[in-house]
Specification:
Oligomer: single chain
Helix content: 10-25%
CATH topology of the largest domain: Purple Acid Phosphatase, chain A, domain 2
Structural class: alpha+beta
Strand order of the largest sheet: 16-28-19-20-21-22-26
Distance between the termini: 22 Å
Number of domains: 2
Length: about 450
């Protein structure tokens, strides 16, 4: 199909499904202010999508807000809807919103939010018009209020209504939950109640999503695009709709996410203000499920079974099994490393510290400190069989692990905004020791075995 030059081709479902856009944190609503222009540049991309989305998800902070002046707050909402979003026919393309720290920061602003947005009135007691759910055929979307004044304000979220709502809609093929605050830290920016929901809510909240087989939790708040997965549930952060001056230069960018959801899962493209797809994701990705596609990596040093960059859409998966040493060993123990004589190994996977934490170390540039990704602790004298996957399309969240036989992947935790995208795999590999030979960070356990599989889709 020929697409006019000013149009951007949207991903569309390959079977009956849903096509939508996600973006948040414009922090606008003031005529002539800084964010009016940046928000307009993102809206211009949404307007160019062909075909247009079925609906839009906006996970909070539409306006700059944070004012005690009721009249000024209402004026910001009026400018946002009547001027900045006047291009959108909301009867044809509905927009569903979450509360945010700029828009629902006290009881007065919560009341204004309810009155102005007029969202479905099916939330829990005390949160009508703040938390709610929407059902579109086989898709359930649940919107939670992550700073409810009734629980203590920013970083606090109710869970019982969420649990019961998901249970009542157990027949939905696809389930998405949306809230303003992340549950897991993004790019190393962490802080209870201000940057993510409070720690007393985290475990219960995420367990509810896992139990209900939720596809994704969509949030904003941290000025970045980020995707990670925990116990099989995605966390997607999209907060690039306007606040450009506070984004890390050269790393994050103004953006919107255009997505297609169907029986094969979720696909999306992250579009910058030039209409360029800077990042993409497909979930679930296609991982190895055929034992004949695995290649065994020789013990000790060997020639690499893959070299160069990992292509877009590709996944490199390792299966690593063995038994940890009879007693815990705090010094670094190498499971696998990829290296060359010219630089410190750009990829090192092993155990570190008294807890024998599964750790991935990635060195992107000579002379610069590497980045660390942390996985589970591996106790002494225990057999293990773990899969580690490199999924560059997913950015820093695309370094994943799971136990063999468990289908649910989890992202290694990290404090960086980049993953293994752009990394060139070097020509030498080592299993059981580091790049300098048998005495370099040896594995102290037994029966170490490593296999590798590379997939594309």
């Amino acid at each position: 199909m020929d697409i006019p030059q000013d149009k951007i081709p949207a991903l569309v479902p390959s079977s009956p499904g849903h096509q939508f856009v996600m973006y948040g944190d414009s922090c606008s609503g003031v005529p002539g202010a800084l964010h009016e222009q940046t928000f307009a540049s993102v809206n211009a991309i949404v307007r160019r999508l062909t075909p247009q989305p079925d609906f839009i998800l906006f996970p909070g902070d539409e306006i700059i807000g944070l004012t005690p002046d009721l009249t000024a707050l209402r004026a910001q909402w009026a400018h946002w809807f009547d001027v900045e979003m006047a291009w959108l026919d909301r009867q044809t393309i509905p927009v569903w919103h979450t509360t945010g720290n700029h828009t629902a920061y006290d009881t007065m602003s919560e009341d204004v939010f309810r009155d102005v947005l007029q969202l479905p009135d099916n939330g829990p007691d005390g949160q009508k018009g703040l938390s709610y759910w929407v059902r579109r055929g086989d898709l359930l979307m649940v919107f939670v209020h992550t700073l409810w004044t009734g629980l203590g304000g920013e970083g606090h979220v109710e869970t019982e209504w969420l649990r019961s709502t998901l249970a009542r809609h157990a027949d939905a093929t696809h389930k998405i939950v949306l809230g303003h605050h992340p549950v897991y830290p993004i790019n190393g920016f962490s802080g209870r109640y201000q940057r993510e929901i409070g720690s007393e809510h985290t475990d219960e909240f995420w367990q509810i999503l896992v139990d209900a087989r939720v596809l994704a939790y969509i949030c904003s708040h941290i000025l970045a695009y980020d995707a990670q997965v925990h116990r099989g549930v995605l966390q997607i952060c999209t907060a690039g709709a306007g606040t450009a001056h506070r984004m890390p230069d050269g790393v994050e960018y103004l953006h919107c996410i255009q997505a297609a959801l169907d029986r094969d899962g979720l696909r999306y493209q992250v579009l910058d203000t030039d209409g360029i797809a800077r990042e993409r994701l497909r979930w679930p990705p296609v991982f190895a499920d055929d034992s004949t596609t695995w290649r065994r990596v020789e013990a000790g040093r060997s020639d690499a079974l893959l070299t160069g960059p990992v292509d877009a859409g590709a996944v490199v998966e390792f299966r690593i099994s063995g038994r940890t040493a009879a007693r815990a060993w705090a010094p670094e123990q190498t499971l696998f490393t990829a290296h060359s004589p010219e630089t410190i190994a750009p990829i090192w996977l092993g155990l570190r510290g008294a807890a024998q934490t599964l750790t991935l170390v990635v060195g992107r540039k000579p002379g610069r400190s590497p980045s660390y990704w942390l996985g589970p602790d591996m106790p002494a004298d225990v057999a293990f069989d773990i899969h580690v996957a490199f999924y560059p399309d997913m950015g820093p969240g695309g370094l994943l692990y799971r136990n063999h036989g468990d289908a649910a992947w989890t992202s290694f935790s990290s404090a960086t905004a980049t993953g293994v995208e752009g990394i060139h795999w070097p020509r030498s590999w080592s299993v059981g020791h580091g790049q300098h030979g048998a005495q370099d960070r040896p594995f102290k356990g037994t029966a170490l075995s490593v296999g590798v599989h590379q997939g594309n889709f």
